[in-house]
Write a structure and sequence with these properties.
Shape: extended
Order of helices and strands: HHHHH
Number of strands: 0
Mean pLDDT: 75
Low-confidence stretches: 106-140
Number of domains: 1
Distance between the termini: 19 Å
Strand content: under 5%
Amino acid sequence: MSDPCRVELQLGKVFAALGTPTEEQWKGMRTLPDFVEFMHTPAPDKRLLFTNIPDDALHLLNRLLCFDPNQRITAEEALAHRYFKTSPAPTPHQNLPRISKKQEDVPCSTAVNHPARSLEHPFIVFSTIDEIDRDRLAVG
């Protein structure tokens, strides 16, 4: 069984990054078992968080991060998304950087660049979700 405090802390981090869901975004969420009302947190502008990604990448990201599972993109739909068909093409697998043993020892909270795209098409990876704004966490 999950620790309720840990679950609420994790949800608070998700809501800080994505805003709290509304009934319009996720119809019926209030009727879910164990539904807990969180303090309203507006969604940050993802364009300000992910300044270097193209529109296609932002569209895919928004579809993947949709709260309502009935509205969320499927894995099959995601793989067919236009983002994967735009230029520049992803770096071929054999050309991706290899992780050395020393790099494997680096803590997960260390910021990294996403190697799947060249620098012309980078993704931003947060070192931790806490960077988004700890004060906006809504626990309780």
